[in-house]
Known about the structure:
Helices cover 38% and strands 14% of the residues. The chain is built from 19 helices and 17 strands. It has helices at 13-26, 30-48, 65-79, 97-109, 145-157, 205-208, 220-225, 235-239, 266-278, 293-297, 321-329, 343-353, 366-373, 391-398, 402-407, 409-417, 455-469, 486-506, 516-531, and strands at 56-61, 83-88, 112-115, 129-133, 162-166, 188-192, 210-214, 230-232, 255-259, 283-289, 304-308, 332-335, 361-363, 386-387, 423-426, 432-435, 440-442.
Amino acid sequence: xxxxxxxxxxxxxxxxxxxxxxxxxxxxxxxxxxxxxxxxxxxxxxxxxxxxxxxxxxxxxxxxxxxxxxxxxxxxxxxxxxxxxxxxxxxxxxxxxxxxxxxxxxxxxxxxxxxxxxxxxxxxxxxxxxxxxxxxxxxxxxxxxxxxxxxxxxxxxxxxxxxxxxxxxxxxxxxxxxxxxxxxxxxxxxxxxxxxxxxxxxxxxxxxxxxxxxxxxxxxxxxxxxxxxxxxxxxxxxxxxxxxxxxxxxxxxxxxxxxxxxxxxxxxxxxxxxxxxxxxxxxxxxxxxxxxxxxxxxxxxxxxxxxxxxxxxxxxxxxxxxxxxxxxxxxxxxxxxxxxxxxxxxxxxxxxxxxxxxxxxxxxxxxxxxxxxxxxxxxxxxxxxxxxxxxxxxxxxxxxxxxxxxxxxxxxxxxxxxxxxxxxxxxxxxxxxxxxxxxxxxxxxxxxxxxxxxxxxxxxxxxxxxxxxxxxxxxxxxxxxxxxxxxxxxxxxxxxxxxxxxxxxxxxxxxxxxxxxxxxxxxxxxxxxxxxxxxxxxxxxxxxxx
Length: 546
């Protein structure tokens, strides 16, 4: 991964092929890329299985480039003192080009090769390790019967052998992360050049095991000339956050206005305001009906309040000048947490949308449901605004069921982005962040500790806090990928921070029981861990509970 990239690339299969071809066109031979891939795989294997000498290794070699990677890796394993056996799926004379060259090199070095029959395993005892080089990330559709038989063979061996998948577990779709109909269940996967979107989806974890990304020497100019459409939002983007400016004061870090929290739902507005403060906002004001203000503050003197006129329990029928003035002074607005879905709330939301020079606004919770009942309001969403639907709210916005949203989240995100100009965060396991027809940010975590009422309110406040307080947002030496706006980048950083705070809590509450207040309070601790530009690595840490 490039040290200067805020969001590391996650090329789709076609985009990865463009990288490979671009490197070859530049003059980097394919045989060299295979050599680099094999060395990268060996490095990962040594990390997972430090004692290689004397170990029996079966390498399943398919007919494509991944087969060439396996053939080359066998030669390096032989040099490490292993006893490799390459099981190839087609006659050796049929392997040509760079793959054929590595077959010849490995055979000349003394590696044993044997044609693999779907109905018969080698008679030797099961190996210590298995290398899956049958298919790569370009696989889509349904596995052929013969390859499916090989996949089942590897999964049978996996009960006793360590399985490493090269680039992708065979049978797993690199776009969706779904098996079709089955896939190799690897203990670890080494992704060459970059991670792949499907492999970093949380639901792909039973097949990928721990995912490792290794560079294979594709030049930076090639990667930049063929940009990706998916990118990773994890600790890398927190590494890149700009340092705190010197000689600063409270206004330096922005002012967040939170509108929400009708009686009985004040906690949601409190959590959003609390999270905005914890993310570094210099000032936070909560605007709510009079009867709610004490509970919205909830003992936090740092949360300023703005009493709205009219009924002490309802939203006003017109915007008071004090609220309009406060909105103009604010650098971010969060609306929706604990707002309710009454006709008065709907009218208030419409009035807020019409505030002249409205600051970047986060629409969350009840505000999203209200928007779904009045689609014409979506036209007033600007490109600096952020919508944060969970699957149920996304279903309401699209007129679908929650099951339909979850069945194809990338398509749901694309349709949500088509509703308005704003940034959309589709929350859930593997949260996705998109905008219009631009690129998608994937946050790869699935953290049960985040599945608690109030967690979404914390995220809304986190987005508002980062929008308001991070003027420069990222260090100058880092660059945003093409197609990623500042608002989308801020939303992606907030999603990553929120998820990593949940991961921090998971180590302390392994069987849940954490509160959303604790999640909000963990935000600055996690941000501080990454602010020092620590290396967050090329392996993707999953919660210990998984």
